[in-house]
């Protein structure tokens, strides 16, 4: 294991398996990265054909029927869908590393829309899943920069936050295994900053000041 001042670097983790809920923009992009990293990848969607088509080499499965096969589980869903998914799969998510990608935005006001008492969607997920390890990630990178692996001519940098160093390194390993980079944003409480960052990036995109193929670029 190596830890550098520049971020998270984990060379000795052997990737096993990743499950992704959602076969939309982010789900498909993350599925492509996961396959590229050499992981075994399952995609679960309400439409199993859409799940199977998320990226070449994934196993598609139907939401509700599917049994989670991954050790890492990526929630690539709109935040309002989380409650149903967490309620349906809470038992299976116990013991897993769960990655929250969401930007919990009210798209009528572009304010953050969080459940009362929570400063971030990630901390809400952690409260709902006390037996899982939650990592915030992918919410500050537009799907296009994940799919291509680059932003403005440099490898895309994914920002991660978690209270578990091991979980953060395990997630970083598959991202870096696909040729992207990561930075360590700190403990899960930093997710509130990542979600604010993600919201502002979306606002700048919606107002056509920055492109959906770029957005904010973290330089490493
Ligand atoms: N797009 C980006 O660039 C970007 C960047 C950073 C973070 N994010 C975050 O990533 C998440 C997904 O965004 P996206 O752009 O990938 O959205 P998307 O393209 O609309 O895909 C959403 C996926 O969620 C599934 N879904 C929706 N409601 C569901 C429910 N109640 N139960 C089960 N599955 C449900 C959809 O399944 P069906 O196929 O059945 O409709 C679809 O596969 C959001 O939280 C967003 O904030 C997006």
From TrEMBL:
Residue stretches making up the Pyrroline-5-carboxylate reductase catalytic N-terminal domain? 18-104
Q: What are the recorded GO MF terms, alphabetically?
A: oxidoreductase activity
This protein's record includes keyword Oxidoreductase: yes
Query: One matching Pfam family, short form?
Result: F420_oxidored
Top-rank taxon, per record: Bacteria
Q: Does the keyword Oxidoreductase apply?
A: yes
Alphabetical UniProt keywords? Oxidoreductase
Protein's recorded name: Diguanylate cyclase
- What is the species of this protein? Bifidobacterium aerophilum
Q: Which lineage ranks, top first, belong to the organism behind this chain?
A: Bacteria, Bacillati, Actinomycetota, Actinomycetes, Bifidobacteriales
